[in-house]
């Protein structure tokens, strides 16, 4: 079976408070970018009694044991009989970009195994398993726009459509770790509820819709500020860093051509 784990962007990301467990509560809206995808293929391994995992595309730096696809497989094997597999992951979504590529791979692996091997897990069970793998993994089980609070895994619905807009995602060759992203962050409640902000026209979002990680990221990598400025200068009606970075996206009313350095990864299309 072949599936296509997709990226996501964050509309706003407010770090609202430090939790007693050391994590942070956030408030954001996850939006899937279904045209920007990895490729994941899983078949039975009829050759021997072990799993075989291979990758292509963008270099996958972590070891097989640390890959979220393998962690998803091992998690389901705790309670379900799944035969030895041949797994191939073709990476298009860069790591460390705030686009949820690894989380999507894990969530889609859970959904694939559930369907391929008739595990009969319901959405809630899939989300519980996904949340054990990463804070935003559970979002990709539903894979439609959701407000996320808590650690990023407490969801509520939102009436949001950007289907008439174009989006350009620009990813420079820098990666930001989660500890880097949280450095110097001072949690606080946003001035306006995120649902109310997103009810306003897109071209007003820049007044109230912020990513609390963005200032830290721009301090470390000033080119991120230049990317955001370039998007606005070419007609973006809203631009922001996604998640903990380093991807910067712009929302446009029409298709737009912009020249970028060859070592940047660019995706341009409709949501």
UniProtKB/TrEMBL annotation:
<feature type="active site">
    <location>
        <position position="136"/>
    </location>
</feature>
<dbReference type="InterPro" id="IPR036554">
    <property type="entry name" value="GHMP_kinase_C_sf"/>
</dbReference>
<keyword id="KW-0414">Isoprene biosynthesis</keyword>
<dbReference type="InterPro" id="IPR006204">
    <property type="entry name" value="GHMP_kinase_N_dom"/>
</dbReference>
<comment type="similarity">
    <text>Belongs to the GHMP kinase family. IspE subfamily.</text>
</comment>
<dbReference type="GO" id="GO:0019288">
    <property type="term" value="P:isopentenyl diphosphate biosynthetic process, methylerythritol 4-phosphate pathway"/>
</dbReference>
<dbReference type="InterPro" id="IPR004424">
    <property type="entry name" value="IspE"/>
</dbReference>
<dbReference type="InterPro" id="IPR014721">
    <property type="entry name" value="Ribsml_uS5_D2-typ_fold_subgr"/>
</dbReference>
<keyword id="KW-0808">Transferase</keyword>
<feature type="active site">
    <location>
        <position position="8"/>
    </location>
</feature>
<dbReference type="GO" id="GO:0005524">
    <property type="term" value="F:ATP binding"/>
</dbReference>
<dbReference type="Pfam" id="PF00288">
    <property type="entry name" value="GHMP_kinases_N"/>
</dbReference>
<comment type="function">
    <text>Catalyzes the phosphorylation of the position 2 hydroxy group of 4-diphosphocytidyl-2C-methyl-D-erythritol.</text>
</comment>
<keyword id="KW-0067">ATP-binding</keyword>
<keyword id="KW-0418">Kinase</keyword>
<dbReference type="InterPro" id="IPR020568">
    <property type="entry name" value="Ribosomal_Su5_D2-typ_SF"/>
</dbReference>
<comment type="pathway">
    <text>Isoprenoid biosynthesis; isopentenyl diphosphate biosynthesis via DXP pathway; isopentenyl diphosphate from 1-deoxy-D-xylulose 5-phosphate: step 3/6.</text>
</comment>
<dbReference type="InterPro" id="IPR013750">
    <property type="entry name" value="GHMP_kinase_C_dom"/>
</dbReference>
<feature type="domain" description="GHMP kinase N-terminal">
    <location>
        <begin position="67"/>
        <end position="141"/>
    </location>
</feature>
<dbReference type="Pfam" id="PF08544">
    <property type="entry name" value="GHMP_kinases_C"/>
</dbReference>
<feature type="domain" description="GHMP kinase C-terminal">
    <location>
        <begin position="194"/>
        <end position="257"/>
    </location>
</feature>
<feature type="binding site">
    <location>
        <begin position="94"/>
        <end position="104"/>
    </location>
    <ligand>
        <name>ATP</name>
    </ligand>
</feature>
<protein>
    <recommendedName>
        <fullName>4-diphosphocytidyl-2-C-methyl-D-erythritol kinase</fullName>
        <ecNumber>2.7.1.148</ecNumber>
    </recommendedName>
</protein>
<keyword id="KW-0547">Nucleotide-binding</keyword>
<dbReference type="GO" id="GO:0050515">
    <property type="term" value="F:4-(cytidine 5'-diphospho)-2-C-methyl-D-erythritol kinase activity"/>
</dbReference>
<dbReference type="GO" id="GO:0016114">
    <property type="term" value="P:terpenoid biosynthetic process"/>
</dbReference>
